[in-house]
UniProtKB/TrEMBL annotation:
CDD domains named in the record: DnaJ
Protein name, entry field: Chaperone protein dnaJ 11, chloroplastic
A Pfam entry, by short name: DnaJ
Domain J intervals: 13-76
Natural source organism: Cocos nucifera (Coconut palm)
Length: 98
């Protein structure tokens, strides 16, 4: 189990943490999370210290929320262009030309 736990910590993206493709659907992400959580939960694998479980949970929390996932995808440049600054939403009041 040491090999797997090291792989979780060294993963480059949240998709790699959960071992799913970037095109994975919500049910696929949930199934991957539940499968990995069963192996890495601190109650099941107390020797790991829970760090792997926290990383898995963080990845799931981001990828299971459609808004957070879209922001994450933009931040890693998944849509073809990297985002360097913070994501800002446009406001109707400031976008109008008076």
């Amino acid at each position: 189990m040491v090999e797997v736990s090291t792989a979780v910590r060294r993963a480059k993206s949240l998709y790699e943490v959960l071992r799913v493709k970037e095109t994975a659907s919500a049910p696929e992400i949930k199934a991957a999370y539940r499968s990995m959580a069963k192996r890495f939960h601190p109650d099941v694998a107390p020797a790991a210290g829970g760090a792997d479980f926290l990383e898995i949970h963080r990845a799931y929390r981001t990828l299971s929320d459609p808004t957070a996932r879209a922001r994450y995808d933009l931040s890693i440049g998944r849509l073809g262009f990297p985002v360097t600054g913070p994501l800002r939403s446009r406001r109707w009041e400031t976008d109008q030309c008076w």
